[in-house]
Amino acid sequence: MFYEEVFRGLNEKRVDYIVVGGVALVLHGVVRLTADLDIAVGLETRNLKKLISIMAKLGYKPAAPVKAEDLLDGALREKWIREKNMLAFGFRHLKGPGLVDVMISTPVKYSELKKNAVMVKAGGIKIPVVSITGLIKMKKGSGRPQDALDVEALREAKRHEK
Which pLDDT does position 95 carry in this prediction? Predict the structure, then answer.
């Protein structure tokens, strides 16, 4: 699995996170190509510090020209959302492919997504993943054409889940 070391690192540091986006679709059995890993995290300072630490250790740096520590500033995150319509803080791997997008704004509250998350085992790693229902809610809130297709695929996956 492409992001195996990221999952291992997040789990070892006990970062409060769940997988959302394209990788979540794949982990729910939907065939979907995606180039990045989208995660939602608890935005508390302590959790974000653990996240930043593991990303640096694994060789990831911010994709934008900012410091990783800027993610700790709640007022700055709100400014990014308000002024730049930024939804995620990207971390890019320095030595190859690899982009991890940390959601700073989601159409569904993190606490709700976390409460209904499921554990998926892949590559011997337990990975917290947004539920199919939660992912459908997130995708419906985006308004992007690809997300409408994803919603249909998720509904089909949910029918086969029962």
Answer: 84
Residue with tokens 């740096």: 61
pTM metric for this prediction: 0.89
- Reduce the secondary structure of the chain to three states and give it as a string: CCCHHHHHHHHHCCCCEEEEHHHHHHHCCCCCCCCCEEEEECCCHHHHHHHHHHHHHCCEEECCCCCHHHHHCHHHHHHHHHHHCCCEEEEEECCCCCEEEEECCCCCCHHHHHHCCEEEEECCEEEEECCHHHHHHHHHCCCCHHHHHHHHHHHHHHHHHC
Residue 60: both structure tokens together = 């990831």
Question: How far lies 3's CA from each of 9, 49, 87, in Å?
Answer: 10, 20, 21
pLDDT in tens, 49-86: 999 999 999 999 999 999 999 999 999 999 999 999 99
The CATH number assigned to the domain with range 4-153 reads 3.30.460.40
Q: Could you give the CA distance from residue 132 to residue 55 in angstroms, rounded to a whole number?
A: 27
What's the rounded mean pLDDT across residues 12-19? 97
Count the Cβ atoms, other than its own, within 10 Å of residue 115.
10
User: Are the beta carbons of 103 and 137 closer than 8 angstroms?
Assistant: no
Query: Is the CB of residue 135 less than 8 Å from the CB of residue 24?
Result: yes
